[in-house]
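Late entry, S-adenosylmethionine complex.
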Amino acid sequence: MAEYNPKSLKAEEFINHEEILETLSYADAHKKDLKLIDEILDKARERKGLSHRAASVLLACEDEEKIKEIYDLAEQIKKDFYGNRIVMFAPLYLSNYCVNGCLYCPYHAKNKHIARKKLTQEEVAKEVVALQDMGHKRLAIEAGEDPVNNPIEYILDCIKTIYSIKHKNGAIRRVNVNIAATTVENYRKLKDAGIGTYILFQETYHKKNYEILHPTGPKHNYDYHTEAMDRAMEGGIDDVGIGVLFGLDKYRYEFAGLLMHAEHLEAVHGVGPHTISVPRVKRADDIDPDEFDNSLSDEMFCKIAACIRIAVPYTGMIISTRETPEVREKIIRLGVSQISGGSRTSVGGYCEEERPHDTEQFDVSDNRTLDEVVNWLMRAGYIPSFCTACYREGRTGDRFMSLCKSGQIQNCCHPNALMTLKEFLMDYASEDTRKIGKAMIEKEIDNIGKDKVKDIVRERLVKIANGDRDFRF
Ligand code: SAM
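Prediction complete; structure with ligand written out below:
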């Protein structure tokens, strides 16, 4: 039997099944222990995070009053570390060719009725122009795993194309990459291509069920998949994004696994994950989410987000358009720092007038345009941020984390959010959004701590109004 060791590089030792089972029994045994829960909450208030065990007790707790305390603390931690900013991004689907057999994904190799499509570089350029015309600056590229149709060279070509397109005042300034687990050498190539975060969802941390859910193809190899982030870091990528596809397995198991993965990255590489994504499995061509029988209520989903926020305060949290506007609103308050907007989950979808379904990966539950999402966020008191400054200024990995931990990062993020929002308002917003945004920027300038920074931001906002672009701290 494998022994639990967060410092090990072996999947079964750092995501240790026995340790997760013991954690869940411990959480069950203590979920009514209000004294312990108070101690855990006190520790969480120090804002240095919680272990997977302590956080699992909070997740299991059923006491209404304590749950309210958990939510209040998550909200407060979110405010302290992320202010009222929400970073915006969009997924860009490059190819749905895939050799894997994932039972929850319509791109699985045996699905013969989904149209297969891979963008040419000309088509990538067209998609990027469409995304720039919406106002996006940050993308997450997505592709199935297919060494013949989507080799690393293809992905690298696409990244190059994406960064090269300068349409009107537009630019994609950060490309995050969500492709299948690969080799250290390939991760190095992605790093050299100037990617932001490498994102890979674990799907499920439960090895046995993972193997059942991935019956065929290279993704079947649980260890190779689970150890991918260590290879990515060895390849020089120091911003990695982890996630679970909630609904595939028991959420408490996944929650403990996620936090153990974060602890492992911190223990081995000195830096935890840059982001955690919380997707839920959705209906799609060929896919009925009810088949997995592990769906969780919106309420529990929000509680998970709150507990993640408390357990890893410095880690960004991402929510996609898999969720409805109602769930997004609630979960943003509890800790999410990045959301997608105006998304199309089909290959070539941004160039189509209507949302196409034939190559779509999953049903989108938030169908609003980016302008509508931006407008909605501002009405709810959030600053939509199109900032991409950190990695361009070399603030990645442990450098980013130490700035985050000292609170210094706020001096960059807040002004950058205002300046990039101003760009959006000038170039892409509807009249109503522009009006709300203008008032928001005026009000939020006062929340910049340093007078000198305030003056610089005011100056730059005028310059942006006069046509200059891409200022950053
Ligand atoms: N192919 C890559 C891999 O193997 O990791 C990643 C790209 S895939 C396009 C992105 C993610 O979509 C997957 O990791 C999975 O979690 C998610 N996904 C797949 N099917 C889904 C479904 N039916 N509903 C919601 N999300 C789904």
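The beta strands are 85-95, 138-143, 174-178, 198-199, 240-243, 275-277, 316-319, 338-340, 383-385. Will revisit in the morning.
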